[in-house]
Structure formats: structure tokens, C-alpha cells
């Protein structure tokens, strides 16, 4: 009934937002991208969050990057950077007091992959089953609920797939 209608309305809003958001880039041609370089940029861009703000809150987060040898990927660099930034922010949110975020790239023929691994609190089965749904958030008022659904949309536009594991 009501909840289903709300969910359908939310999905329509997300579709309109994503159309609006990617309007300028939809016509942009995918180009070969050095994926490892994009990840290095994201680590640098998010450093104020995972290092400085974390320290200010009494938390210690270390980030490491295990670079695999990967061929260029075809895509839009800005979208890949946005997706990875979202994954980094989620990892930072999951860590309480002290933890580690590991980014790892590699090749599973024929696909290039990136893993973003954190040793944070993890997700319950319930959260895990809903985490890609638009507007679903487990972060209370500070979360928009668009992070992982946007990441998933970007991954799909790049003909990729997303796997999420939690313990």
C-alpha cells in the first residue's frame, strides 16, 4: 500500500535526479582511464575526512592502496571518482575509534576490479538487503540514502557489477 507507493515515488525521483545529474555527461564519450590514478586522487581528496576529521573526533583511520597492474578502463573519470569517493565515505562512517581502509585493484579476466575493504562495524542482514535502494540510509539524519544507489548506477553505466559483503 502506502509504503510501496512511497518507494515507487522515491525511485522516480532518483531516476529524474540521475537523468538531470548525468545530462551533460550522457553525451560525453567514454575514454580510457588509468583506474589506479583515479583511486590515488580519491585517497588524496578524502584525506581530510579519514585522517584530519577522524583524528579530531578521536579516531585513527589508516588507508592503504594495493595497486594491481590493470589496463585502462573505458569510462567517465568524474563518475568513477564520485563512486569511489562515496565508497570511501561509507568506509570512514563504518569505522569506530580505529580502523583500516584498504583499496585494492586487480584483474579478473576480462574485468578490472576495485575492492574497498574496511574493518568497521559492518551491516546487519536487514541493512545489507536494502543498502542499494534509493533513499535507504542507516546513518540517520546525516545520510541521504543516495550514496550506494548512485554508486550502483555509475557501476552499471560502466557495464560493471557491484558485490557487497559484510560481517
What key attributes describe this structure?
5 helices, alpha+beta, 167 residues, two-stranded antiparallel sheet
Spatial order of strands in the largest sheet: 2-4-5
User: Uncertain regions: pLDDT < 50 for 5+ in a row?
Assistant: none
Strand content: 15-25%
Principal-axes geometry comes out as globular
Order of helices and strands: HEHEEHEEHH
Annotation, overall tally of beta strands? 5
* Number of discrete helical segments: 5
Report helical residue fraction.
40-55%
Q: State the end-to-end distance.
A: 33 Å
Structural class by SSE content: alpha+beta
Q: Round the Cα radius of gyration to an integer and report it.
A: 17 Å
For the sheet with most strands, the description reads: 3 strands, mixed
What's the rounded overall pLDDT mean?
80
Amino acid at each position: 500500500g502506502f509504503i510501496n507507493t512511497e518507494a515507487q515515488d522515491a525511485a522516480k525521483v532518483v531516476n529524474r535526479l540521475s537523468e538531470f545529474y548525468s545530462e551533460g555527461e550522457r553525451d560525453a564519450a567514454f575514454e580510457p582511464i588509468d583506474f589506479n590514478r583515479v583511486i590515488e586522487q580519491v585517497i588524496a581528496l578524502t584525506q581530510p575526512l579519514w585522517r584530519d576529521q577522524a583524528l579530531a573526533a578521536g579516531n585513527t583511520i589508516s588507508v592503504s592502496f594495493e595497486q594491481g597492474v590493470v589496463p585502462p578502463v573505458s569510462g567517465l573519470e568524474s563518475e568513477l571518482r564520485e563512486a569511489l569517493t562515496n565508497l570511501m565515505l561509507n568506509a570512514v562512517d563504518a569505522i569506530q575509534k580505529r580502523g583500516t581502509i584498504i583499496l585494492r585493484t586487480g584483474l579478473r579476466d576480462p574485468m578490472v576490479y576495485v575492492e574497498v575493504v574496511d574493518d568497521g562495524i559492518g551491516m546487519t542482514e536487514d541493512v545489507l538487503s536494502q543498502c542499494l535502494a534509493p533513499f535507504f540510509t542507516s546513518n540517520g539524519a546525516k545520510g541521504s540514502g543516495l550514496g550506494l544507489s548512485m554508486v550502483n548506477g555509475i557501476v552499471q553505466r560502466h557495464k560493471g557489477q557491484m558485490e557487497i559483503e559484510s560481517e
